[in-house]
Design a protein that fits this description.
Blueprint: H1 23-34, H2 48-71, H3 78-91, E1 95-96, E2 109-112, E3 115-117, E4 132-141, E5 144-153, H4 159-176, H5 185-198, E6 202-203, E7 209-211, E8 218-222, E9 239-242, E10 245-247, E11 253-255, E12 263-265, E13 271-273, E14 276-281, E15 284-289
Antiparallel strand pairs: 1-4, 2-4, 3-12, 4-5, 6-10, 7-8, 9-14, 10-13, 11-12, 14-15
Amino acid sequence: MKKPGRNDACWCGSGKKYKKCHIDFDERIEEIEAAGHIVPDHSLLKTPEQIEKIKESAKINIAVLDYVAEHIRAGISTAEIDRWVNEITTKMGGIPAPLNYEGFPKSVCTSINDEVCHGIPSEDIVLKDGDIVNVDVSTNLNGYYSDSSRMFLIGDVSEDKRRLVEVAKQSLQEGLKAVKPWGFLGDMAQAINDYIKANGYSVVREVGGHGIGLEFHEEPWVSYVTEKGTEMCMVPGLCFTIEPMINMGKPEIFVDEENGWTIYTEDGTPSAQWEIQVLVTEDGYEIISY
């Protein structure tokens, strides 16, 4: 981590001298790194100005999901959801971040029942009574990114699917209890994994969350199956998603060979996922998008 001189301007952009601003902060990071832990570099720590711009992006992301919540129902195609997301995002001045990202063809991911994530909207896919569906919205506003997803129950959903969705949502709250400045991402991961296992479900291992803010996907990659005291230190200013993918059955998954994107549970059982975007603060955390 490159450090300014003691009397140079601080790297955070405050305008203060480094010795009056972040020198103690950086020394603490160095101590944690010297103890063998992973730490973020300055580029991953969001400044107050960047945080405000990320929050502006998140306003669009939340508004889009609110609209989906009000209008989603049986008989709607996932292509219609894609149109909603694109139209509202662009009308509010943003760009749907998934569109053309590494070749993804649509503005949103819509994942139904045994689809774990990255479902591609289509006119041929129509929501029906009893479905559970994850709508994953991501927004780019002037180069600042937000990302969150919600589960929706379509019509008369079976009790086992309903419980899966509720436990998946509660797992975020269990994880948030462990999001503390100077703790570790593994603390949050173990809290989630322990809770999910206690409820009889499994957590997908290969797909996780990510840092976000100045790019759609930044370091760190966020696992939900690692152990307490491991993974990157949650330094104040770190911004990332919490989005564990919870399977009713086993954790194994596979990728659709035809489209190269959609991920399914290997055993065909339902999967559920809620996603929030979190900022680590000096005294805890702040939820940026939900």
